[in-house]
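User: quick one, sequence for these tokens?
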């Protein structure tokens, strides 16, 4: 996946909402390890899964995923 990195804020959103990987995975119908792979950037989600993740957190998809690194929060 060289050059095709999709950055995300799933871990930040999970921490902010106090949602475990297992809870998110269960809501999305995926294995909890998939959430870990997504958070570490080891797996790029399908468009369908990306949209479902954004909907779960009730934010626009571009608030969760980006082709550029997100700036630090502090």
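Assistant:
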């Amino acid at each position: 996946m060289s050059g095709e990195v999709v950055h995300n804020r799933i871990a930040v959103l999970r921490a902010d909402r106090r949602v475990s990987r297992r809870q998110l995975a269960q809501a999305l119908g995926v294995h909890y390890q998939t959430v870990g792979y997504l958070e570490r950037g080891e797996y790029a989600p399908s468009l369908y899964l990306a949209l479902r993740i954004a909907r779960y957190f009730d934010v626009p998809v571009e608030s969760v995923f980006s082709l550029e690194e997100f700036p630090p929060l502090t």
